[in-house]
Amino acid sequence: MARLPLALAIPPLTRRPGLDQAGPVNYDDPITDFTRRSVTVEGVTKTVYVAGAGPAVVVLPEMPGISPDVLRLARWVRDAGFTVHVPSLFGTDGAFPTVEGGREVVRRACVSAEFRAFAGGGTSPVTLWLRGLARQAHTACGGPGAGAIGLCFTGNFALTMALEPAVIAPVVNHPSLPLDDPGGLELDAADARAVRDRLDRDGLTVLAYRFEGDRWCTGQRFAAYRALLGDAFDGRVLPDTAANPAPPPFFADLVGTPHSVVTAHLVDEAGHPTVRARDEILSFLTERLHPQAHRPLSAT
Fold first, then answer.
1. How far apart are the first and last CA of the chain?
2. I need a labelling partner for 123 at 20 to 30 A (CA). Which of 71, 185, 191, 292 fits?
3. Whole-angstrom Cα distance, residue 67 to residue 36?
4. Contact by Cβ (8 Å): 157, 150
5. Which residues pair with 51 in a beta bridge?
6. What's CA 73's distance to the chain center, in Å?
């Protein structure tokens, strides 16, 4: 079995000052403004949180789960005019990301049959289920197609979901797999060819983000995407100085590098580079899933 990366083997660290007094529970998200559904795809049932109206967008969780920051992003997508679907794939839904809990979630995911965390593993099997979710969501919500936003551990899943014809707006944020190969892609050879052919055939573009110094999603990885996808890959890089300097403990103490552009490391201030990235993602989704909003008015 492949060894876990060094960062996952370090002993637990003390939380940053100020968090112990209130406790992580104060930062949990109750997810009361979403409808909790059980969705079955080919006999496998998972929990999916759904909210909003309009074309479907699947917002995937990032390690160590559906955090309050992931839900904040999902609400932004919802409020931009979409029906957002957030599937529960690992961790405790709505939990604030701590070092202790997060490390255990990563360990379990790395040995799960649903995920391929290390080089040579190929495409994660869970992406078949996610493609079915996108198909069902698009059928229910209508519109020209569905969007998919991957984050961190699930970053590349949004690209693989483009093998489902309904998915026409894939967003790949700081993809971290495979964990042990900074220039690798979490795709087997056949799926890589199929994804490239689908993007070429339908003229699709993949929007992607990373921080310049991210050691989990490196420049080598973006170069590998570009080599595979060519001009269909729109990879955008933010300076490390744009990252939130005080993210939740899991990101501060275990991830240990600028990483989560539109979630944990986003700085929610007007005009900030991470907020501009968020707005670019929302525009990308709108242009593809609400094309009528960008059509010029007919002359009268």
1. 68
2. 71
3. 16
4. yes
5. 84
6. 10
- Among 291, 295, 274, residue whose Cα is nearest residue 283: 291
Rounded distance between C-alpha atoms, residue 84 and residue 76, angstroms? 9
Picking from 168, 156, 80, 169, the residue whose alpha carbon sits closest to that of residue 124 is 156
Q: Which string of DSSP letters, residue by residue, matches the chain?
A: -PPPPHHHHSPP-PPPTTHHHH-GGGG----TTSEEEEEEETTEEEEEEEEESSSEEEE--BTTBS-HHHHHHHHHHHHTT-EEEEE--SS-TT----HHHHHHHHHHHHH-TT---STT--S-THHHHHHHHHHHHHHHH-SS-EEEEEEGGGTTHHHHGGGSTTEEEEEEES---STT-TT--S--HHHHHHHHHHHHHHT--EEEEEETT-SSS-HHHHHHHHHHHGGGEEEEEE-GGGS-SS--HIIIIII-SS--TTTTT---STT-HHHHHHHHHHHHHHHHH-GGGGSPPPP-
Tokens of 4: 């876990």
User: 35-41 and 44-52: which strand pairing?
Assistant: antiparallel
pLDDT digits (tens, 9 = 90+) for 132-158: 999 999 999 999 999 999 999 999 999
The overall pTM is greater than 0.85: yes
**122 burial type by CB count under 10 A (0-12 exposed, 13-18 middle, 19+ buried):** middle
Identify the pLDDT of residue 291: 82
Reported as a pLDDT band with limits 50, 70 and 90, residue 171 is very high
Residue recorded with tokens 């990879």: 235
R_g of the chain, CA atoms, integer Å: 18
